Amino acid sequence: NPVNDMYADAIVAAILQADLLEVPIKNMSTSVKVDRMHFKECLIEMLQDMFGEDSVPKIFKGEKLYVTVNDKRADIDLSNLEVKCPSDETFQQIVHTAVTKLYQSLAPPQIDM
């Protein structure tokens, strides 16, 4: 419905805007370990909200996940938060930003000065 679309657009815009203001990852250390299972559950839910329920598998094993939109597939490696989509660099960047920002939100960083 239109209200859900409005929220989804606002979230994507906020994520992309935050990416422009991103502090370099090399200067950050996490103070708390992320619960991997919780991260995976949140990631699946977020990707389904962003791209639709049919774009993400409901269940997956291991550290590999993918999201498919308009015949474009982005492969996500959860062990190093790497995203690859050779056919669409913009889609790759959107997914990478979403994955990274979700991870960072679940493990608040301490900036080393």
Explain this structure to me?
The protein is globular. It has one domain (2-111). It is built from three helices and five strands. The strands form two sheets. A three-stranded antiparallel sheet has the order 2-3-4, covered by helices on one side. The chain has helices spanning 2-20, 36-51, 89-106, and strands spanning 28-30, 64-69, 72-77, 82-84, 109-111. The protein has 113 residues and is an alpha+beta fold.
Can I get a quick summary?
It contains three helices and five strands, in the order H-E-H-E-E-E-H-E. It has helices spanning 2-20, 36-51, 89-106; strands spanning 28-30, 64-69, 72-77, 82-84, 109-111. A three-stranded antiparallel beta sheet has the order 2-3-4, covered by helices on one side. It has a two-stranded antiparallel sheet with strand order 1-5.
Tell me how many strands there are: 5
Written as H for each helix and E for each strand, in order along the chain, the element string is HEHEEEHE
Low-confidence stretches: none
User: In oligomeric terms, what are we looking at?
Assistant: single chain
The overall number of domains is 1
Helix content: 40-55%
List the helices and strands and how they pair.
Elements: H1 2-20, E1 28-30, H2 36-51, E2 64-69, E3 72-77, E4 82-84, H3 89-106, E5 109-111
Antiparallel strand pairs: 1-5, 2-3, 3-4
Main features:
113 residues, alpha+beta, three-stranded antiparallel β-sheet, two-stranded antiparallel ribbon, CPSF73-100_C, mRNA processing, Cleavage and polyadenylation specificity factor subunit 3
